[in-house]
Amino acid sequence: MPTSFYTLIENSFPEDGRQIAIEAPDRPHDRKHGRASWSFNELKAAVARYASLIAQLGLKRGDRVAVQVEKSPEALFLYLACLRGGFVFLPMNTAYRTDEVDYLVGNAEPALIVGDPARENELHEIASRHGAVQVLTLDADGRGSFSEEAAKVRDAQPIVDCASRDLAAILYTSGTTGKPKGAMLSHGNLAANGLALRDAWAFTENDVLLHALPIFHAHGLFVACHTTLLAGARMIWMSKFDRSEILRQLPRATVFMGVPTFYTRLLAGDDFDAKLVGHMRLFTSGSAPLLAETFDEFKSRTGLAILERYGMTETGMNTSNPYEGERRAGTVGFPLPGVEVRVMNEEGVELPQGEIGDLQVRGPNVFSGYWRMPEKTAEEFAEGGWFKTGDVAMIDAEGYVHLVGRAKDLIISGGFNVYPKEIEGLIDEMPEVDESAIIGVSHSDFGEAGVAVVVLRNGATLNEATLIARLKDKIANYKVPKHAFFVESLPRNTMGKVQKNLLRDTYRNACT
Ligand code: AMP
Q1: CA 453/CA 435 separation, integer angstroms
Q2: Given CB 3.0 to 4.6 Å as the disulfide criterion, which of 164, 363, 398, 415 pairs with 339?
Q3: Are residues 432 and 395 in the same domain?
Q4: Is there a contact between 405 and 233 (Cβ–Cβ < 8 Å)?
């Protein structure tokens, strides 16, 4: 592998750099003027300009660039510019509110924040609380002070030669503790996983990926972009998942990647059928369990089998159903080349095939640890470099991995992770509340959604609407419980642990 991941990416581009690399047909301001597109040469030039600007702002190799912007091709160029210049990219969910951004900035200490112009004042306030952080802006149309400054850059600096172990990105992921932890991913982690997926899924220069995922998450940013860029293939860049826009673009695409919610939404109308997608080479699904009924309905409607794969922020992709060979509903397939998986019991002994236990993974894709949390990092690794995924799994006689549960009490709503502890903490802080439990229940659109079960203090009053409104002020919408129920007490087992299984049972139809 060449020393730098970014060099590897550029080396994968087609020889004729005038070919289109990325187009953004649903850009608000370009809609009037026809389609916005960038050739590979234009992409390279923009990335070089952005990287040079960041260096001119005084950032050094290893400095963090925190980014909370709407999805746009320029936002992708900004990520690539960080790879190119040796800066560490730190994407933030666009739904994060002030407190959430403040925590991340305080923890990661970025030297530069690039944010939405509509939230510039707020970002300046956050920046001023955390030392000398610079703030620039970029909006959904690629406009803002960041691109204005970049347009003035004349002399592009050379690609910074990053070693495999150098830090490329920090992606925050919440844990059972409720406080987000920064997963440190190296250039080597990203390159290894990108190449493994490109080859496993047979990407070539002729592919066109219809990209509808958000890019503040590993799925949309790494899995989707790296497989495509490393094949020198083209992307149709949708600002978000909009069903009718997706149907309009599908005839021009060869590959589509989604979370299960995308598939249930696509299947919701009869206009999604074999005629529309018969030419497609590949549909992949991940980030949350794809129900067997969705897999089956997709197959009977289109004749195509969705390829389900499994990964996480800390590891990139670990397993995938086969490109050639049987894709099995309800399984996440086999370990990717170079990745090892094993199932362990509570005593740390490896279990034979067919038995259920904790899933651990090892490989060049696995991150090096949580940013500035050595103890937490040590807790999550077993001896020999095995990462404890927190997922409960079984490997069947033919080697297919089945995920059967989550040890970490996680709720996955529309593909986004909701950690109950974080929300429970916020509810428990409310003066009227004694204690609370957040549980995941089935949701017809999001797959799963959070519901709050709350015990009030003696004599206190609080209603559902007020509780939900208060949470909406503090946290991203997808984390806000869809309903709140008030009860006398929470059911507990003899160890005093809240019996969430009983609550899940009681409220199982709350969101259907
Ligand atoms: P994240 O770090 O946001 O990517 O979330 C990782 C978690 O998502 C994993 O630990 C799994 O619990 C879950 N996950 C990812 N892919 C799948 C899948 N195909 N099926 C079930 N759960 C999945």
Answers
A1: 9
A2: 363
A3: no
A4: no
Domain count, the chain: 3
Which two structure tokens, joined as six digits, stand for 388? 């404890």
Q: Is the pTM of this model over 0.85?
A: yes
213 lines ligand 1 (CB under 6 A): no
Which residues form the domain of 146? Answer: 5-27+36-211
Please give the C-alpha separations between residue 369 and each of 184, 213, 372, 376, in angstroms, as whole numbers. Answer: 6, 26, 9, 8
Give 105 Cα–ligand 1 centroid separation in angstroms: 25
DSSP state of 498: B
- Decide if 440 contacts 449 (C-beta within 8 A): yes
Taking the centre of ligand 1 as the mean of its atom positions, its distance from the CA of residue 310, in whole angstroms, is 6
* Residue 1 clears pLDDT 80, i.e. is over it: no
Q: What is the mean pLDDT of residues 57-77?
A: 97
The one-letter amino acid code at 308 reads E
Amino acid identity of 258?
G
Give φ, ψ of 152 to 5 degrees.
-85, -10
What angle separates helix 40-56 from helix 73-85, to the nearest 10 degrees? 60
Regarding the beta carbon of 312 and ligand 1, being less than 6 Å apart is answered yes
Q: Which helix (H) or strand (E) holds 363?
A: none
Show Cβ contacts of residue 119 under 8 Å, excluding neighbours closer than 6 positions: 68
**Residue 211: CB partners within 8 Å, gap ≥ 6?**
220, 224, 225, 228, 235, 236, 237, 238, 257
Q: Which of 369, 436, 384, 426 is nearest to 183 (CA)?
A: 369
Query: 13-31 pLDDT, tens per residue?
Result: 999 999 999 999 988 666 5
In short, whether 214's Cβ falls inside 6 Å of ligand 1 is no
365 with 455, same domain: the answer is no
Q: Is 155 found in the same domain as 17?
A: yes
Q: Do 18 and 165 sit in the same domain of this protein?
A: yes
What is the pLDDT averaged over residues 241-251?
Answer: 97
Pocket mutation for ligand 1, best pick of 259, 287, 410 (most atoms within 8 Å of C-beta): 287
